[in-house]
Amino acid sequence: MFTLLLAAAMPLVSSCSIQKRAKQPVSYHYERGSTALYRDGLAYAPRGAPKSVKAAIQAGNRLQGKPYKWGGGHAREIDSGYDCSGTVSYVLREAGLLRGSMPSRGFLDYGRRGEGKWISIYVRDGHVFMTIAGLRLDTGGSGNRTGPRWKPEERKARGHVVRHPPGL
Fold first, then answer.
1. Radius of gyration (Cα) for the chain, nearest Å?
2. What are 19-43's pLDDT values in tens digits?
3. Partners of residue 43 on adjacent β-strands
């Protein structure tokens, strides 16, 4: 019995040990040409950003003003509200970087380990958020569930694993 339990737990232990954990808070600092410009609640991609990054920012802009909705963005790709994983799934799907959607825990195995140059996904059991061209897209972080919003305020990332789409 103990051997069976140990064998079942091994994939979880090894999966966590090879993950790249966030060490610093996520903060936004605008740098012309390399980060998104945040103005009046919307994000604007740098001119030299890859097409998929520009598409991701446009998708994030379409979600502004939508309410938080538990399970939102999973049963329907276009929904009346979005939860954290529905938000990240929608943006990645619209950018051509994901098929379908996945719950927050599913992002523990998405893409590659560590921060990306353009897109980084921060995931822990029960929550996921992302940065696109240095600007955070998140449904949480301010103590209330406001729905998907661009958030230039700093957020602690302790306990989150960092992943990114291949090549980005």
1. 16
2. 888 888 898 988 999 999 999 999 9
3. 38
Alpha carbons 138 and 121: distance in angstroms, whole number: 10
Residue spans per domain, the chain: 30-164
Output b/e per residue, 29-45; b: 16+ Cβ within 10 A: eeeeeebbbbeeeebbb
pTM of the predicted model as reported, rounded to 2 decimal places: 0.86
Q: How far is CA 60 from CA 8, 36, 111, 116, 148, in A?
A: 38, 12, 19, 18, 8
**Is there a contact between 123 and 87 (Cβ–Cβ < 8 Å)?**
no
- Would you tell me how many other CB atoms lie within 10 Å of the CB of residue 52? 19
Topology of domain 30-164 in CATH is endopeptidase fold (from Nostoc punctiforme) (3.90.1720)
Tokens of 15: 């999966």
* E-assigned strand segments in 19-74: 37-39, 42-44
Extract the tokens encoding 41.
């609640």
